[in-house]
Amino acid sequence: MRIPAGKPRAAAAALVLTTLAGCGVTTTDAIDAGQPATGARRRGVTSTYEVRLYFMTPTGIASSSRDAGDRVGPEDAVALLLKGPNQPEKERGMYSDLPKMNGEVHVTTGTMRVGVQLPYNVLKLSPVARSQLVCTAANAEVPPGRPIQDVKVELSGGSYVVSELVCDNNNAFPAAQLPTRTAAPVP
Questions:
Q1: pTM: predicted TM-score of the whole model, two decimal places
Q2: Residue 31 pLDDT more than 60?
């Protein structure tokens, strides 16, 4: 077959289509056979919600997605994170570096902002634990189409506040920001 000068793409495409048609390759509809594909949407499901939690693995911090029946906000996402990894996540080598919280955790949200108040001194959180909280909270607050780095997270507890944290590459940044002392409560 001689290809005219200046039209190699069109000629190549025609050659491929002619070859495929000559081999009997045709389009088909979906065929019901075997087990459904993992992660595929079921018929009638128009939207799927999931929550993304951040855990430690032997190779660093990684996210894990869990199916959710509805949109999961930062408060519910942090509560799930504090419960630790589920069995499938444990089997993948995931674990939490967060300490047990003896008391209530309060999560507040604003426009592109999340505050997490812990019954624990935030200065004692490891960088991994801090990243787990920041990335989980930020991911649950970020609107579709916006980068997770746009959400600012503030961690407070033990009379200290670490603010203006963002999640970047599964790590809280700036993790080394100096915390500020909160005002002492008035008696």
A1: 0.68
A2: no
